Amino acid sequence: MRATRVRTAVIGVLLALAGICYSSWVLDYFLHSGLDPMRSFLSELDSAHMPHRSVYVTGDVLTGIFALLAALGLVVPPMMVRNRFSITAAVAIGVFGAATISDALMPIECLAGRDPNCPDQSRGLLPQLHHIHALTSSVAVIAIFVAMVAASLAAWRRRDWPWLRFGGGLVFAIVVLATVWMLAADRLDGDYRLGLAQRIQVGGMSVWLVFWGLAIVRWAPPTARPPAVSDGTSS
């Protein structure tokens, strides 16, 4: 039982660290890249010619490593999760980790309007669609959404990670609203603060990862639950 609790705590800490590192973009408020946070996208912070890009690349790579290690801890034998919802959440967070590492290592080469000789590209949810960076970003976002949905279902229907039932659900709702904001505004003319919407979305994902980590730390998986004490009667 002690070994199970230690393993649970380690997995929870790894997820919390992934959430903290995924919020490395907050450092831009101190490092001052010059990008407008209301209108710029976070992928622009680690584009090839940006100052301090190594800070954000390191943050994303660490995020991916911690997420992958947490996923492995949940699914490798002896498994910590045994129902389809929690297994889906664990696999999805592993995919998120791998995609986030790929995203960091294959950044946008340049920013139109900022870097000399950079071709003008349309601004939208996925700028510079010709680059594989767009694919890895999409996979990472989809994967963490799948993890959030699956983990929430595990919390409500299978009694896994009970802390996710309320606080985690509230954070998930904020992420969904920010995503709807982005999807809707991207198809309309005008200034709808897409940069702010993305920062709320990614900030919510970071908080949710930390929340999931704390929920796992507090969780008593089936292998750690003590057996029921018999009262000596038979049915």
UniProtKB/TrEMBL annotation:
The chain crosses the membrane at residues 55-75, 87-106, 132-156, 163-184, 196-217. It comes from the Bacteria. It holds the Pfam family DUF998. InterPro entries: DUF998. Keywords: Membrane, Transmembrane, Transmembrane helix. This is DUF998 domain-containing protein. It comes from Gordonia hydrophobica.
